[in-house]
Every structure is written in C-alpha cells, then in structure tokens.
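subagent[fold] <- orchestrator: predict structure for attached chain, return tokens only, no commentary.
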Amino acid sequence: MTDAQYEIIMKRLEEMREIKFRGFNEYSKQWAHGCLVVTCGESFIFSPEKLMDCPPVTSIGQFDVNYYEVIPETVGQYTGLKDCDGKDIYENDIVKILRMNFGDNRDNNIVEYEDNEGCFSLSGWQILPDMPHLYQVVGNIFDNPELIDKN
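subagent[fold] -> orchestrator:
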C-alpha cells in the first residue's frame, strides 16, 4: 500500500459517523452506551464505561470493557449528530427545533429511524446534519414521557 492510498483510507475512516447505541439498564437505573449485542433474545451493551453500583455481566480478560443487560425496547442508535449544546442525539430522544430568526421554538419531536427513507427523522421530518444549532435534546421518550403529550 502506498502512502497516498493509506492517506485516502484514513481520511475516509475519519469521515465515517460513529456507530453506537444506548440502552437502559434496569438494575442500575442508568443508561449504558456502546456497541449493541443481541443474543438469545436478550440485549446487551458492550461498553468501556462502568455503570455505578452495577456489576457487569462479564468482563473480557485484560480489557476494561463490560456487557450490561439492557431493556430491548429502550435501545436506540446514535444518529451521528450532536445538538446545539454538543449532546449526542439518539433514536427515541425528544428534540426541540429552535427557530433561527423568530426566537420561538417548534414543538418537541421524537427522533425516529425511517426505514423507507434510510435516515433519522424528527416526527417525520428529515434531520439536517449541517444545522446542529437548530436542535436541542430535551429528554427521551422513556425518561420524559410527559414531554410527548405536548405535541
């Protein structure tokens, strides 16, 4: 492999969005973030972070990573985008759309994956990746169901 080919590959790797998931661990009452593993009908998050007061299902040898069982219905994928405060936006988040020139806000919207379109959306409207200043995560449908009723 030439240096030029290596540089092209590295540039493409840097441009790829990060693939990660989050899920709610019932034991610790905390969200685990990392890689999703689904086996035998159970869902686990393979995570480098440790959840407080929650023993991992297993550790892998010398590596500081853990599997945490999560409630399958709470699993959401990272969209690859951050909001106006730099917070990761996940599937099932509730996001407020901030209007640039009017000073008012649009109703809360749920982040969903649109199978037919192959993209994430806010209550049916495609998320604009180049405009994170328009979005603010205000909660998620599991921790803040009361925010959904405002739509």
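orchestrator: received. Logging for downstream: The chain has two domains: 17-73, 76-150. The mean pLDDT is 82.
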